[in-house]
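Entry 12.
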Amino acid sequence: MSQIIRRSVRLPRFREPESDVRRRPVTKQEFVDAVADRAGMSKREAGAAVDAMLDTITHALKNGDTITFTGFGKFSTSARAARMGVNPRTGEKVHIAATTVPKFQAGSALKAAVKGG
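Predicted 3D structure (tokens):
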């Protein structure tokens, strides 16, 4: 007679295909390093260029301007109207003030690049 030994076996968790796995976010420093490598400049110069670009976009959006990079996308602002909300804890109605928020709309070349892999 053979004895059957039962063991609890842990199965590995199911993994999505590599293309569907969400990647971790790229930090600003990693982005600056990549710009420096691609542009052939020092990390200090690349950092200054990235900071200047971000400051310029921020300043333009503060002034209500729209920035368009053909094929890449468009940075703009959108006005949100005042509205009534509900505090989920108390059920009390709360007034939410009108505000202006930044918005990004991806361009066709960026969409195609991301979609294509």
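Annotation: The helical segments are 28-39, 43-62, 108-116. Residues 85 and 94 are 5 Å apart (CA to CA).
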